[in-house]
Design brief:
single chain; about 1150 residues; alpha+beta; Methylamine Dehydrogenase, Chain H; four-stranded antiparallel beta sheet; 30 helices; 61 strands; elongated; Zn_ribbon_IFT122; repeat; cilium; flagellum; Intraflagellar transport protein 122 homolog
């Protein structure tokens, strides 16, 4: 680090008297420099020191200056006890006074409050309120500083104490320095390197101390060897600029390590300021000197292959792998002067010692360096290199070789000043070092030998040089920016380049060099012209395709494509070198060009590696096939080239080579695969049938690929590939084409015809299938029957069964299944019977019944049970076996059907109380269900719902006795919670009702005219079973009678019909208004009306039901309109009823 003077002024008043500069500061953007001079404030242009303004307003010397961080204001304090606020346009905008000379000031960077201090007080000025609040102090204040976060204000006292205060001015901590020396300069370091902000304190005891905002010391104080008057931070708080008495000024690290001392004037330095960009600084002296400097940092670094070591913050060393970008930081805690790196060794020169580090990889594969040796003596040198076991120090013309521990081994004296040193390799302890001298000589020596070998000689001083990895070529750059390339063995000059400032050889490829100058990077391979790229900086290394460029102090890694050197080598057929370049970094296109060129020149090893790199497996397969042949004659080589051309789509060129070298069949195959059939025809040769068939098949395959299925089918037929043609027709459902193919096929083609028939059958074209089967002679066989069954052509199937009854099971069983699927269970039952499988219909019907009950479709359940009962009745009618069992099942399922049919109304009433049923109907249904379910429990039928509905309707219809009985029964059941309140309330309220039923609800027996309780189903007098309507479930006026044993059902029907014919009035007769019944008293026994007789003379001594028996005469005498006959199939008998109320229908 060093400072370059830019401009300097000696400030004097009009009497040529030097004016002390007590304070200076930069504007926020750094374009202007403000300085105190006597009573005035001077404004300079920073870049050239031109005086822009002179501000007048104070009556005494101006002591301090400060500017606000927002750039809107700055302030000046004077010995006249006043503080003046100035705008950015250099106009006074405010003013206030102190009780003594204003010693120091500082703006808060956050709130922009101004802290101003005089000898025994300080004030806080608020810009918003435009008022100042002052605080008395017991000690003289020399300096002040706000923290960067604006929360703390530090005041430096003359007695060596520092007061830390908050934004309100209240003291929160007090720091007392041990030696009690006066404090004249303090500053704050941001929390960039620490958890909290650090207060840096300089005193006149030549100490630099570090404290946090709580008043605790954070670092041990350092002796800076000067009495500080000013301190400022630099480079984002990385460094401290400290100036003071006797003209001393130095730059220190943020830990207090002295890095540079660049001023040694006899006049005190009262003021300093650092440019906002940190590249410039200004100093103000007691003798009126105002100086402006540019700061430059020397680049201290070292490079070995991809490992780059450089100095950071002047006291640290960072080692970076430029390829993987891994870094490791080494804290040296002293000024780093020199760095050298070689393999796993790192040498760092500090002011008082040289430290050698050794690298190792830890378990996480991160870089790690540990100290190997320390050389305690002060090694003064201008160049330094490190080897595996040695250090080589250069002092002008003398080279000194030391062990890593600092033990002297040997030295060499040169005849000119050494300008450049580089270790180029060698075994440990025998490394070779190239030495570049000021007189242009390039020498080589070994660390274990005193022998010095001269290699080359250039006309001017050597600036830099490098040797390639194969140690056969060298490149040297001299002070005239001329780069010379030499052959190491013959010492012959190969070529030269001008305007070059640096040169390196590629660490991965020995024939590639990179040199730079005027921000142009050149990449050169052997004698080929250099390939240029514009890159800012100069080259310091090249690793494969990565160029390491140094610009100022920053190293950039630039990835470059090496396509141009690759093509240069391919042009000269240097395939091995081209492959080495490609391995560094080229695009996939470049790889393919390399592989293709190598293949055309039959450099198969290069071609295979190049194709493998870009995963072109087809090329590798072609090369492998070629190598397997063994005989690598011209014919095979050209066949390989033709195969490659065909793969690349150059078909005509490939075909031309095939034809010239006798591979016509390959050309034919290629064109047929490509669907280029016209071109393939040219290569058939003798036009054999086999090749024609193959061509037709290829054409058909091509037609399929473009969805021309019809054309493909016709081509397959032409090639006699009938199966493939049939597959296409079936896929597209082209039954007409299948039929035409079958018609044109010979009867001998049984396999083809049979498949056509089967496919037509599957496609549902039964007529066409019948025609094909007929052609095969299968029109009467089981295949034809199955065909009609699959097509559901039941009439044709039944016709075949009539001709051949043995086919009945093949027809009736599928027919029954079809009927069952279409809910035709009765017909399905008959079909199952004919097919010998009656149990199947029952299974389907029972499943439907169970599902209906589970889904609470009770009307459907009743219907299904009714169908089941009829099925059992039909079975009993058609078979004598187990007829009693079938009749019992019939009776049971018929009862179930009645119950579910009736319960549907109760279920709907429970779900929707506002349904359309009349109370009388619900009453009748409920009492019917109560009696029917007395001794059985059916799934889904709730006895609570039945009794609940009956109780509700009984109360509505004033059947209080019945309602009380039903409510009593309800309380014995498990009552749903939502109905519990109703049952409890109704059970209580019914007790207030009379204990009798409405007479209109009593059940009258139409046989004996006895009135019964509303809930009975059989007359208590004559045991006659009431007959209910299935519409409203009221009792019908019907009386069942039976025939005498000598009368059959058919005979009874004839008698009833004859009676109807005899009693039918003729057209001329008048129909009386009243029915007449005349008894023949002489034959009273035969003519007495049995019904009337029973009603009048009934005596039931045995208390059993006695049916009414009628003879032929009575039956013939009964009115036909009053007789109802229920005809039942056998084994059941007909049932006969008399309607006692003929007007009721």
């Amino acid at each position: 680090m060093h400072c370059i003077p830019i401009w300097l002024h000696k400030i004097q008043d009009k009497d040529k008297i030097q004016q002390c500069i007590y304070s200076i500061c930069f504007s926020v953007d750094g374009s202007q420099l403000l300085a105190t001079a006597g009573h005035d404030v001077l404004i300079y242009r920073s870049i050239d020191g031109h005086l822009l303004h002179t501000l007048k307003g104070h009556k005494e010397n101006v002591i301090c200056l400060t500017n606000a961080k927002n750039g809107k204001l700055f302030a000046s304090g004077s010995a006249d006890k006043t503080v003046i606020l100035w705008s950015s346009k250099f106009e006074p905008v405010g003013k206030y006074n102190h009780n003594d000379t204003v010693q120091c000031m500082d703006f808060n960077s956050i709130t922009h409050h101004l802290a101003s201090c005089s000898s025994m007080e300080f004030g806080l000025y608020s810009l918003e309120q435009k008022s100042v609040q002052k605080y008395k102090i017991l000690f003289k204040i020399n300096t002040c500083a706000w923290s960067t976060d604006g929360q703390s204000l530090a005041l430096g006292y003359d007695n060596g104490c520092i007061s830390l205060r908050n934004r309100s001015g209240e003291e929160v901590a007090n720091i007392e320095l041990s030696d009690g020396q006066s404090v004249w300069a303090i500053t704050w370091l941001s929390s960039r390197y620490n958890e909290d902000e650090i207060l840096c304190i300089t005193d006149w005891g030549q100490k630099l101390s570090f404290y946090n905002k709580y008043g605790s010391e954070t670092l041990k104080n350092k002796n800076i060897h000067l009495e500080a008057l000013t301190i400022k931070t630099m480079c984002n708080d990385s460094y401290l600029l400290i100036g003071g008495c006797k003209g001393k000024c130095g730059i220190f690290s943020f830990e207090g390590i002295k890095l540079s001392e660049f001023e040694d004037k006899h006049s005190w330095i009262w003021a300093s300021s650092v440019h906002p960009c940190s590249k410039f600084l200004a100093l103000g002296c007691q003798d009126g000197t105002l100086a402006y400097y540019k700061i430059e940092f020397n680049v201290i670094h070292g490079l070995y292959q991809e490992k780059y070591a450089y100095r950071e913050n002047m006291t640290d060393v960072v080692v970076q792998d430029l390829v993987t970008n891994k870094k490791v930081q080494i804290k040296c805690r002293d000024l780093v002067k020199k760095i050298a790196i070689y393999k796993d060794r790192l040498a760092v020169q500090l002011p008082s010692k040289v430290v050698v580090y050794e690298s190792s990889l830890n378990q996480t594969s991160e870089m790690h360096y540990r100290i190997k040796e320390k050389m305690a003596e002060n090694a003064i040198c201008n160049l330094l290199v490190v080897c595996s076991n040695n250090l080589v120090l250069c002092q002008e013309t003398r080279l000194q070789c030391l062990s890593l521990a600092g033990i002297y081994e040997r030295e060499w004296t040169m005849n000119s000043v050494v300008k450049y040193l580089k270790v180029i390799g060698g075994s440990p302890g025998k490394e070779q070092i190239l030495v570049g001298l000021h007189n242009g000589q390039v020498l080589m020596l070994h660390v274990n030998s005193l022998v010095v070998q001269q290699l080359f000689n250039v006309t001017k001083s050597v600036r830099c040089f490098d040797v390639n990895i194969s140690m056969d070529k060298a490149a040297i750059v001299d002070d005239e920016n001329k780069c010379s390339f030499f052959d190491m063995k013959s010492k012959k000059l190969l070529f030269q380049e001008s305007d070059i400032t640096s040169v390196v050889w590629n660490s991965k490829f020995s024939d590639m060099a990179c040199f730079s100058g005027k921000h142009i990077f050149n990449i050169k391979v052997n004698e080929f012209p250099a390939h240029q790229q514009r890159i800012i900086g100069h080259v310091i290394g090249m690793w494969g395709s990565r160029i390491f460029s140094l610009n100022d102090s920053i190293v950039s890694v630039i990835e470059v494509a090496l396509s141009v050197p690759l093509y240069q080598c391919l042009e000269k057929k240097y395939f091995n070198k081209a492959y080495q370049i490609a391995c560094l970094n080229v695009t996939d296109t470049d790889w393919k060009i390399l592989a293709r060129e190598a293949l055309e020149n039959f450099e198969l090893s290069i071609a295979k590696k190049a194709f493998a790199n870009i995963k072109e497996f087809k090329y590798l397969e072609l090369i492998a096939l070629y190598e397997e042949k063994g005989s690598h004659n011209d014919k095979d080589k050209h066949c390989l080239l033709a195969d490659v051309l065909a793969y690349e789509g150059k078909f005509k060129e490939a075909a031309r080579i095939y034809q010239v070298w006798g591979f016509e069949h390959k050309a034919f195959t290629m064109f047929t695969d490509l669907r280029m059939f016209d071109l393939a025809q040219e290569f058939i040769g003798s036009n054999t049938a086999g090749e024609n068939k193959e061509l037709l098949i290829k054409r058909a395959e091509w037609a399929m690929s473009i969805d021309e299925h019809k054309v493909a089918a016709e081509l397959y037929i032409s090639a006699e590939e009938f199966d493939r043609a049939i597959d296409i027709m079936v896929h597209n459902c082209w039954t007409h084409m299948l039929l035409e193919l079958g018609r044109h096929s010979d009867k001998a083609e049984e396999v083809v015809l049979s498949r056509i028939g089967d496919e037509l059958r599957k496609l549902g074209d039964t007529e066409s299938a019948v025609e094909i089967y007929s052609k095969l002679g299968k029109d009467m066989g089981p295949d034809m029957v199955s065909l009609h069954v699959e097509a559901h052509n039941w009439d044709q199937a039944f016709a075949l069964v009539e001709k051949n009854p043995m086919f009945a099971p093949l027809v009736y069983l599928p027919y029954a299944e079809w009927l069952a699927e279409n809910d035709k269970f009765v017909e399905a039952q008959k079909a199952f019977l004919k097919g010998g499988r009656p149990e199947r219909a029952f299974q389907v019907l029972q499943m439907l019944t169970e599902n209906a009950v589970d889904e609470q479709r009770f009307q459907d359940a009743g219907h299904y049970y009714w169908l089941l009962s009829r099925q059992y009745l039909n079975i009993a009618s058609n078979s004598n076996d187990n007829s009693d069992k079938m009749i019992n099942q019939y009776n049971l399922y018929d009862k179930y059907a009645s119950i579910y049919y009736a319960y549907n109304a109760i279920h709907r009433y429970m779900e929707d109380p506002f349904m359309s049923y009349q109370p009388e109907t619900l009453f009748n249904i409920s009492r019917f269900l109560m009696n029917e379910t007395k001794n059985i429990h059916l799934k889904g039928v709730s006895k609570f719902a039945i009794l609940y509905s009956l109780s509700k309707q009984a109360l509505t219809m004033r059947a209080f006795k019945l309602a009380r009985q039903i409510l009593t029964k309800l309380q014995q059941l498990r009552i749903p919670s939502e109905y519990q309140d109703y049952v409890d309330l109704a059970s209580l309220s019914i007790r207030a009702k009379p204990f009798h039923d409405n007479e209109d609800l009593l059940s009258m027996c139409y046989r004996c005219l006895t009135y019964n309780s509303p809930v009975v189903q059989t007359c208590i007098t004559c045991n006659h079973k009431f007959i209910f309507s299935y519409i409203k479930f009221e009792i019908l006026p019907l009386i069942e009678f039976q025939l005498e044993d000598n009368i059959s059902d058919n005979e009874a029907l004839k008698l009833i019909q004859n009676s109807y014919d005899e009693h039918k009035p003729k057209e001329s007769e008048e129909i009386p208004d009243v029915d007449k019944f005349i008894l023949d008293e002489e034959n009273q026994d035969h003519l007495v009306d049995p019904f009337t007789y029973k009603l009048m003379n009934f005596e039931n001594k045995e208390n059993t039901y006695q049916p009414i028996k009628v003879n032929k005469t009575i039956l013939q005498s009964m009115s036909t309109t009053s007789i109802i006959v229920c005809k039942w199939p056998k084994p059941l008998k007909f049932k006969y009823y008399r309607n006692v109320l003929p007007g009721f229908s």
